[in-house]
Amino acid sequence: MPGELQILGRAVKQAQYRHHRTLDARLALVGTTLAQWDALRAIGRWPGASARELARETFQSEQAFGTLAGRLVTQGLIERRPGHGRRLEHHLTPAGESVLQAGHRVADEVLAASFAALTETERSTLLGLLERIGGEPTEEEPGPGLPG
Asked: How far apart are CA 109 and CA 25, in angstroms?
């Protein structure tokens, strides 16, 4: 049984790795990277979110997200606005919205091809199982902290 669990864990990681590599390569064609597009996606979903909230949502440290956000500001894809206290709020620019939408089209194509071997019922089952084992965040790994 323990060997089977390791094989299962590796299969999940292998699928994720393949998705990331393919998405990164295809997103480059629309002028972005997977990390940048994921940040744009989080900002688009939660306009006005802080760097701390967005870092959790994108599975990054605050420092890494801050560096990434700085690059996105320089590229004219997002802007930071003063919020309450010292909080900086993040918002997409029209250029950022355009890149985000192009990224959505790429992701839809890549993931449709990747999951084409599964029926709709199998995809729903897989999603349900992955959500079930995703579980609640631990103290060491807090969840996004953002409304769904």
From this structure: 13
Partners of 82 in the β-ladder: 88
Q: In degrees rounded to 5, what are phi and psi of residue 84?
A: -70, 130
Q: 11 is written with which tokens?
A: 């299969």
Helix (H, G, I), strand (E, B) or coil at 108: helix
DSSP 80-137: EEE-STT-EEEEE-HHHHHHHHHHHHHHHHHHHHHTTTS-HHHHHHHHHHHHHHH-SP
Q: What is the dihedral angle through the alpha carbons of 102, 29, 46, 59, rounded to the nearest 10 degrees?
A: 150
pLDDT tens string 81-99 = 998 888 899 999 999 999 9
pTM of the predicted protein model? 0.83
